[in-house]
Amino acid sequence: MSKTLLSLSERFSLEGRVVVVTGASSGLGVAYAHALAEAGASVVLGARRPDKLEDTARAVRDRGGEVLAVPTDVSDIAACEGLISAAMARFGRVDALVNNAGTGGQYHAVDVDPPEHFRSVVDINLNGSYWMIQACSRVMQPGSSIVNISSVMALTTARMPAAAYSASKAAILGLTRDLAAQLGPKGIRVNAILPGVFPSEATAHYSENYTRKIIDARIPIGRIGDPSDIAATVVFLVGDASNYITGVSLPVDGGVLVN
After folding, report:
1. What is the reported pTM?
2. DSSP 226
3. Fewest CB atoms less than 10 Å from the CB: which of 3, 37, 65, 190?
């Protein structure tokens, strides 16, 4: 039986898809939500800050997108399951997950690093990603896609004391490979993106001079990333344009990792 081939425009369209985005209240999570809606998807937004989450939902609606916002702490297994239950109740399906919720912080290993800080970072960045995948994979159908958000810090260092963040983001790469193998027979693809330097709450305090030094030292392409750069990559990995790609860890970093 021959397989119906999709046109190029159909491969990049997300019409009829339902995509869950965690960490959707700020930063790149907002850019992902906007891009996915623009590509035709209905988006289900989860984050811990209800007011900012509603700001994202309002912006998606203003762009004509269909959206559901559910306050969610991904470190809480029941909350992850509740987010997916709400998505199923509203839309009847979940076609993709963008595992974006994350946190960071800086503590030097030889100083007082509060154990609760390290545990919290791992709990949100790594454990939360796993709980979300568990909840989604139980309802996803063949052809679905999971996009984990790691970081270039999984493979390099910014010379900052961020062991918890770097370790949790490195673990995401192992999680991605293993779950791509586990879920592949179910027709579910699992990939990871490694963002480089992008505008965010974490980088908002960088001075223009400091940003220039980072660019000159680490980014061959000569600029920090624009949110649209990485949002387009998410749209690609969610849709049929990437339907033969799984288990991949894809840097979107302007060349940081070539140094």
Report:
1. 0.93
2. P
3. 3
Closest CA to 130 of 95, 167, 80: 80
3-class DSSP state of 195: strand
Q: Count the helix, strand and coil residues of the chain and give each as a percent rounded to the nearest 5.
A: 45, 15, 40
Q: Between the CA atoms of 54, 203, 195 and 176, what dihedral angle is there, to the nearest 10 degrees?
A: -70
In the prediction, which pLDDT does 229 show? 96
One-letter amino acid at 93 equals R
Q: How far apart are CA 140 and CA 189, in angstroms?
A: 11
Q: In what order do the strands lie in the sheet with 42-47?
A: 67-71, 42-47, 18-22, 96-99, 145-149, 189-195, 249-252
| Catalytic residue IDs | 151, 165, 169
Is residue 168 within 8 Å of 122, Cβ to Cβ? Answer: yes
Residue carrying the six token digits 């849709």: 239
Encoding tokens for residue 21?
């985005």
Look at the domain 13-258 and name its fold.
Rossmann fold (3.40.50)
State both tokens at 141: 């159908």
For residue 70, list its beta bridge partners.
Answer: 46
Residues 46 and 70: their CA atoms lie apart, in Å, by 5
Q: Is 189 helix (H, G, I), strand (E, B) or coil?
A: strand
Any alpha helices (H) in the chain, and if so which ranges?
8-11, 27-38, 50-62, 77-91, 115-122, 128-137, 163-183, 208-218, 227-238
What pLDDT does residue 113 have?
A: 63
- Domain residue spans in the chain? 13-258
